[in-house]
Amino acid sequence: MRKLLLTILFFISISVFSQITKTDTWDEAQKIALSENKDILIEFTGSSWCKPCIRMEKEVLSDPKFEEFAKDKFVLFVLDLQMPIKVDSENYQTFERYKKIHNVSFYPTYILTDSDGKEKIRLKGYYSLNNFIKKLSK
To answer: Does the keyword Ubl conjugation feature in the UniProt annotation (predicted)?
Structure first.
């Protein structure tokens, strides 16, 4: 019984510590990126209504292979436009502000920046796991 419990705890700790750092504020993403010497991967998504966004989350971003690849390289800054849209909501205002700053009109869009926000790579739409990792490795 003790061995089973230790095995379960081991796998729980691996899953907790192997995850990419995610945040929904730029200031926090930048602070973490600077302190941990990482880039910032900005995700513009509609997780409840955008079919390619939903596929990316399910098939790519939550895959352990992606998390292992990304955890030491990126902080994920998630901008998730929620439905129904409420134009006076903080969610909508934040999404629109960063959408304008980064000139985004297609979802999902992924923008890799340095910790200062300088764009390095821009990816639009759905990518397979291996192709997404390959594109972000350039």
So the answer is: no
Read off the CATH number of the domain in which 98 is found.
Answer: 3.40.30.10
* The total number of structural domains that make up the chain: 1
User: pTM score, two decimals?
Assistant: 0.85
Q: What b/e readout covers 62-92, taking b as 16+ CB neighbours within 10 angstroms? A: eeeebeebbbeebbbbbbbbeeeeeeeeeee
pLDDT digits (tens, 9 = 90+) for 122-138: 999 999 999 999 999 98
Residue 62 lies in a domain: yes
The dihedrals phi and psi of 13, each to the nearest 5 degrees, come to: -65, -35
CA distance to 44, 48, 50, 75, 136, per residue, from 81 (Å):
8, 9, 10, 19, 23
Element at 134 (helix H, strand E): helix 129-136
CA distance 110 to 104: 10
Q: Does residue 56 fall inside a structural domain?
A: yes
Residues of the chain with pLDDT under 70: 1-18
- Asked if 106 contacts 124 with a C-beta cutoff of 8 angstroms, the reply is yes
